[in-house]
Amino acid sequence: MNIEALAIPEVLLITPRVFGDARGFFLESWNRRSFAAAGLDLDFVQDNHSRSQRGVLRGLHYQIRQPQGKLVRVVAGEVFDVAVDLRRSSPHFGRWVGARLSADNAQMLWVPPGFAHGFLVLSEQADFLYKTTDYYLPEAERCLRWDDPSVGVQWPLAPGSQPTLAAKDAAGSLLAQLECFP
């Protein structure tokens, strides 16, 4: 596998080796030994799967207690995936990185604890899978507003269009109002 640090070096774009032939393909999406050898000694406790339609934006979510690291990937369709650094002690606090993840490119993103995470569906539909390093804790969940101008995520939306949001995402808070990490 190939691991590339993005502009925020703790967020990693992971490209697995894909073995394909006329029958289809095979790839290892998770191998504890291989990831540990690459410096990612992770203990996942939960797997999640969401399906969303074109234009759906999920996020930007995080848990202030029991923060979750997430290994995310797309198995059908394409999304624009975003991580925002919410660690006040980080030189990258309030900055974001993004990557297009798709079934075709088979890439994954490692989003460490201390980051808000979200994605916008670019294809007609997308199936999004992710592993987490801690359990979901609803009372600790927080949401950074998807269009916070101080963060300035450049979502690939058609001019004049708005994403489809869940009520909790539409009610997200601005970075200046958020409870963040030390």
Automatic annotation (TrEMBL):
Query: Which keywords does the record carry?
Result: Isomerase
Pathway this chain belongs to: Carbohydrate biosynthesis; dTDP-L-rhamnose biosynthesis
Q: Does the keyword Magnesium apply?
A: no
Enzymatic class: isomerase
A GO biological process held by the record:
dTDP-rhamnose biosynthetic process
Superkingdom field: Bacteria
* Residue(s) at site: Participates in a stacking interaction with the thymidine ring of dTDP-4-oxo-6-deoxyglucose: 136
Q: Does the keyword Isomerase apply?
A: yes
Q: Which residues form the active site?
A: 61, 130
For this record, an example GO cellular component is: cytosol
The protein's annotated catalytic reaction(s) are: dTDP-4-dehydro-6-deoxy-alpha-D-glucose = dTDP-4-dehydro-beta-L-rhamnose
- One of the Pfam families matching this protein, by short name: dTDP_sugar_isom
Q: Which E.C. number(s) belong to this protein?
A: 5.1.3.13
| GO MF terms, alphabetically ordered | dTDP-4-dehydrorhamnose 3,5-epimerase activity
Query: What role does this protein play?
Result: Catalyzes the epimerization of the C3' and C5'positions of dTDP-6-deoxy-D-xylo-4-hexulose, forming dTDP-6-deoxy-L-lyxo-4-hexulose.
Could you describe the subunit structure of this protein? Homodimer.
Q: Which family does it belong to?
A: Belongs to the dTDP-4-dehydrorhamnose 3,5-epimerase family.
Q: Can you name this protein?
A: dTDP-4-dehydrorhamnose 3,5-epimerase
Organism per entry: Acidithiobacillus caldus
Lineage, top ranks: Bacteria, Pseudomonadati, Pseudomonadota, Acidithiobacillia, Acidithiobacillales
